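SEQUENCE-TO-STRUCTURE ENTRY
===========================
What this section holds: a protein sequence and its matching fold, both as plain text.
Tokens: labelled as protein backbone structure tokens, with as many entries as the chain has residues.
Question of interest: how does this chain fold, as expressed in backbone structure tokens?
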Amino acid sequence: MYIVRHIGWWALAMALAFTAGAQSREQVNWLTFEQLSDSLDAQPKPVLISLHTDWCSYCRKMDQEVYTHPEVTKAISERYYAVKFDAETTDTVRFDGQVFANSRATSRRRAFHDLALILGSRGHRFSVPVTIVLDEEFNVVSRHFDYLDSKKMLAILE
């Protein structure tokens, strides 16, 4: 009887600890470009844009390891608006009075969205992940065309 009660309390304590840990973990508040436009009108501040695709393993690794890192999420939450954008979406995006679409997508082939190409191309090449930092006036401060670990991301956010 003692063992059953002891295990029961242990299981309850573990469940509560797991739930508390999961709830206290701060997350990045990702916005859409439409939400960003409204936020910038209300209160200007720098912007972090993450361009990704579903098939990009480094993008998923950044989601799992970098954008969940407590210092990174804190820095982003306190100082930036953050936009996460699927570079292959076929959605039409309205931002800053303009309309952007994925004009290259066909029914058989996915292609990069026009807005992703405008923001994340270097020369005539585009590859993900792309991380872009913009100032309050939406001017490019820096663009990064590779996987960024937490240490590199923190350096960029400073």
